[in-house]
């Protein structure tokens, strides 16, 4: 029988549960724990978690811990010990930097030094996969299976799901159809769906590109504000239109539209970063205060789509050397970097300067 959920199915369930505020049980070689995403946690569930006999921690990334001046003894994360009187407001204030300037002092914070942190690390990865703030309440358990059964909770085994959590999504083309565009009437839209239940990604194929030669291509990450609303805070919309226009002028090309909003942190977290930028932080510092890295996108998705469409080499429309490196690392030859410098305006000049200075963009 193959009806039971596999590792990808279990991870998809866990992501959905965390977004709804439902805790998830974790099991690994070092022991067991129950976790809840801080962002969607309720007072009632926090009280229920605190009532369990195990030790309770708030798992934060080292980026967020640095903002809070909390020691990250585990390197990439900190395990903040929850005091007995910790309220939901206190817990969520540690995870969300919205009030950092208004209430800068949140400590002193005591972080755990002893014991394994592998399940706390898994908890943060699951929060990121769910497009939530990367922070989780984690309570140690003696028997993961018993609690998962009695409370009907999703059980994530670190050993069984670890490879699926770190692997590039397996994509399948669902359908393609002709979609005439202003930039090119001879366009087709291809829909690709990942096996892990994640968001679909798209490929816009202009003309009939020769698979034997490098194709003019762009990896474009979805930007609701820039692509749809015409936001002036970024250059995404102009880049999208300029790339399609250049492909239309040449008569051939492939634009990959990847649903990795906000450099992979999701629209809600991108708006949190925008709010921090309004307070004076640049785009990189804002991501760090939220607990994220500079860029959380998975560029392996683009290389997988190109391969499935029969392409092995590209002329890449980009200003980002990281995209070139990732394409090459994934087996796609970048025969040429084609600059795409458009959309500069007074509202995004500092944003673009930060991308050049801190992220190495060639602007």
From TrEMBL:
Catalytic machinery residues: 295, 297
The protein's annotated pathway: Cofactor biosynthesis; riboflavin biosynthesis; 5-amino-6-(D-ribitylamino)uracil from GTP: step 1/4
Source superkingdom: Bacteria
Residues the record lists as binding Zn(2+): 223, 234, 236
Cofactor: Zn(2+)
UniProt keyword Oxidoreductase, yes or no: no
Binding site for GTP: 218-222, 239, 261-263, 283, 318, 323
Signal peptide: none
Keyword Hydrolase: yes
Domain GTP cyclohydrolase II: residue ranges: 175-339
Pfam families (alphabetical): GTP_cyclohydro2 (PF00925)
Keywords: GTP-binding, Hydrolase, Metal-binding, Nucleotide-binding, Riboflavin biosynthesis, Zinc
InterPro entries: GTP_cyclohydro_II, RibA, RibA-like_sf
A GO MF term: GTP cyclohydrolase II activity
Job description of the protein: Catalyzes the conversion of GTP to 2,5-diamino-6-ribosylamino-4(3H)-pyrimidinone 5'-phosphate (DARP), formate and pyrophosphate.
Entries under HAMAP family matching the protein: RibA
PANTHER family: 3,4-DIHYDROXY-2-BUTANONE 4-PHOSPHATE SYNTHASE, GTP CYCLOHYDROLASE II-RELATED
NCBIfam families the UniProt entry points to: PRK00393.1, ribA
Family: Belongs to the GTP cyclohydrolase II family.
Name of the protein: GTP cyclohydrolase-2
Species, as recorded: Mesobacterium hydrothermale
Organism ancestry: Bacteria, Pseudomonadati, Pseudomonadota, Alphaproteobacteria, Rhodobacterales
């Amino acid at each position: 029988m193959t009806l039971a959920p596999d590792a990808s199915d279990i991870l998809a369930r866990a992501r959905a549960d965390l977004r709804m505020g439902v805790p998830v049980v974790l099991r690994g070689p070092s022991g067991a724990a129950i976790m809840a995403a801080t962002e969607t946690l309720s007072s009632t569930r926090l009280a229920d978690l605190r009532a369990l006999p195990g030790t309770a921690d708030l798992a934060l990334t080292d980026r967020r811990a640095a903002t809070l001046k909390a020691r990250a003894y585990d390197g990439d994360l900190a395990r903040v010990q929850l005091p007995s009187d910790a309220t939901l407001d206190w817990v969520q204030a540690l995870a969300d930097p919205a009030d950092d300037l208004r209430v800068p002092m949140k400590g002193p914070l005591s972080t755990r030094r002893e014991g394994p942190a592998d399940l706390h690390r898994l908890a943060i990865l699951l929060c990121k996969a769910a497009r939530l703030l990367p922070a989780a309440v984690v309570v140690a358990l003696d028997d993961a299976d018993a609690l998962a059964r009695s409370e009907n909770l999703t059980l994530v085994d670190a050993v069984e799901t670890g490879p699926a959590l770190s692997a590039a999504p397996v994509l399948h083309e669902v359908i393609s159809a002709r979609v005439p565009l202003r930039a090119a009437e001879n366009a087709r839209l291809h829909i690709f769906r990942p096996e892990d239940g994640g968001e679909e990604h798209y490929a816009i194929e202009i003309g009939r590109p020769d698979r034997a030669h490098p194709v003019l291509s762009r990896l474009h990450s979805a930007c609701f504000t820039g692509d749809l609303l015409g936001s002036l805070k970024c250059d995404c919309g102009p880049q999208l239109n300029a790339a399609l226009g250049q492909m239309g002028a040449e008569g051939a090309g492939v634009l990959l539209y990847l649903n990795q909003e906000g450099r992979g942190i999701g629209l809600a977290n991108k708006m949190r970063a925008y709010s921090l930028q309004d307070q004076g932080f640049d785009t990189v510092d804002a991501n760090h205060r939220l607990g994220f890295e500079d860029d959380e996108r998975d560029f392996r998705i683009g290389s997988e789509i190109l391969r499935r469409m029969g392409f092995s080499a590209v002329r890449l429309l980009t200003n980002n050397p990281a995209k070139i490196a990732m394409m090459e690392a994934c087996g796609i030859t970048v025969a040429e970097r084609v600059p795409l410098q458009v959309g500069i305006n007074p509202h995004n000049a500092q944003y673009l300067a930060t991308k050049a200075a801190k992220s190495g963009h060639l602007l």
